[in-house]
Design a protein that fits this description.
The chain is mostly helical and about 110 residues long. Helices cover about 65% and strands about 0% of the residues. The protein contains four helices and no strands.
Length: about 110
């Protein structure tokens, strides 16, 4: 396991907006909601590959990387919510609209 950066050991990571661990937990909750909805609709969730982790050199870079990922996710959920609103308004569309709003909140918490 790589060494923990000094800024993390010093407690600097806990001073950032709602810390990264909380955001990570919320993202896992989003994945769970989408997976459950897929199962309700009779679809097996695909095995996903995640983007490689890109470590930040300092807290500011971590925030910038986090904001960029959150904006990417916001655009995805917005597109999905709009599609369902137009073509199949149902609980799946409501789920994506809910996730879209939560992701906007994540961006705000990360200062973006």
């Amino acid at each position: 396991m790589p060494p923990v950066p000094r800024w993390h050991r010093s407690g600097a990571s806990t001073r950032w907006p709602n810390n990264f661990t909380g955001l990570s937990d919320e993202e896992m909750g989003h994945a769970d909601l989408v997976t459950r909805q897929m199962l309700v609709l009779g679809f097996a969730p695909p095995a996903l590959s995640l983007d490689p982790v890109r470590p930040g050199r300092d807290p500011e870079e971590l925030l910038a990387l986090g904001r960029a990922k959150e904006w990417e996710t916001v655009r995805f959920y917005e597109e999905a919510a709009n599609w369902f609103r137009r073509f199949q308004p149902d609980e799946t569309g409501a789920l994506f609209a809910h996730l879209f709003n939560e992701e906007l909140e994540h961006v705000r918490r990360l200062g973006g």
